[in-house]
Amino acid sequence: MPSESPCSGHADVEGKVGPESSGGPPTTLHSAPQNSPAMAQLLPSDVKMLLLMSRDPGRYSTVTRRLWGHIFDSLVVGSLERMALGVSQLMRPQALGPVIRATAMLYFHLCPRCTVQHYEAALDTFWRPPVKPPTLVFYSYDDPLCDTAHLQELLASWQQAGMPVWAQAWETSRHAAHLRQHPLEYRHALITFLGRLGLVAPTARL
Q: Which residues contact 184 (CB under 8 A, 6 or more apart)?
């Protein structure tokens, strides 16, 4: 089993991707971070699953074959400086923004094993994904935690690697709250995607 940082939060995903869960029906993963500045929450458990699969592909080969699709909601893509700025913009009151930004950067500096190294490993996994299932991505252009230019470069690289990719984007939304802010469009995109995978009937409703 790969060695992990004690603060990387992988213990909660071992039950999902360990050998004991290798048998079963097709799986579609829906990844969405919590709206929180904590690193372990900005990187949802399904992203940590990809980290595990990239580090030990043999151990999780059966899980890889079961993975029919992946749905990413509010991916965090960009520099740590962008993340610190985004966290400061999400917090209230806004007057505390500069303090929160400085505190976040200090946290990254003091705890690199739990933050910088973990985040960079996750980004590397995205740029060189261990699996290439059909993928749906939800994002907004005004998400303070996501550099949309870099995100679009990432999606283009996935397509060039042969991964089928669809995206639902909004000019204005809120990080990790697209379903709440755009319920009809969100559900339509989700059902259409699952229909492409043959997992729901085209007329299904959520």
A: none
Q: Where are the alpha helices (DSSP H) in the chain?
A: 14-17, 39-42, 45-55, 61-66, 80-90, 97-110, 116-127, 148-160, 178-181, 183-196
Radius of gyration of the chain from Cα atoms?
Answer: 17
The residues, any chain, with a CB within 8 Å of residue 52's CB and separated by 6 or more, are: 2, 10, 13, 14, 17, 59, 60
Q: Taking 60 as the threshold, does the pLDDT of residue 9 lie above it?
A: no
Confidence of residue 202 (pLDDT cuts 50, 70, 90): low
- Ordered by where they begin, the domains of the chain are 14-196 (3.40.50)
The sign of the torsion formed by the CA atoms of 23, 16, 184, 158 equals: negative
Work out the angle at residue 128's Cα, subtended by the Cα atoms of residues 54 and 152, and round it to the nearest 5 degrees: 135
Strand 135-140 and strand 165-170: pairing? parallel
pLDDT > 80? residue 192: yes
Quote the CA–CA distance of 108 and 97 in Å, as a whole number.
17
